[in-house]
């Protein structure tokens, strides 16, 4: 299993960013995917989860209405569209797969600063 995140970078407060997660090594379309984040000095928190067939999505209360999780099963990709970003949302963002055990990517850094 391999999960590779990309798309992080520097964005101003209120700005938008789209993260991507490339998955390989398993039957991608069969599993839910999640995005997590870990800010400086904070624990890792779940941001959003999408079901295997995009039929169900679930968000942390803090990001509802601003973030959108999606996936493309034909490309083995997951995405996180983030808008109205806040400085406190600066973090390393990870995609995660649960397949009996948790599999994590190495993360992509999002910096929210003016």
Word description of this protein:
- The chain is an all-beta fold and 114 residues long.
- The chain has strands spanning 2-6, 9-11, 17-24, 33-38, 44-50, 57-59, 67-72, 77-82, 91-98, 102-104, 108-112.
- The protein starts with a strand and ends with a strand.
- A hairpin with a 6-residue loop joins strand 5 (44-50) and strand 6.
- Helices cover 0% and strands 53% of the residues.
- The protein is built from no helices and 11 strands.
- The mean pLDDT is 96.
- The strands form 2 sheets. Strands 2, 4, 5, 6, 9, 10 and 11 form a 7-stranded mixed β-sheet that branches.
Sketch the topology as an H/E string, one letter per element.
EEEEEEEEEEE
Segments where pLDDT lies below 50 for 5+ residues? Answer: none
Cα end-to-end separation: 37 Å
**What percentage of amino acids are in beta strands?**
over 45%
- Report the sheet with the most strands, covering strand number, pairing sense and barrel closure: 7 strands, mixed
How many helical elements?
0
Given the C-alpha coordinates, what overall shape results? globular
Can you give the mean pLDDT? 96
Counted beta strands: 11
Helical content stands at under 10%
User: What is Rg?
Assistant: 13 Å
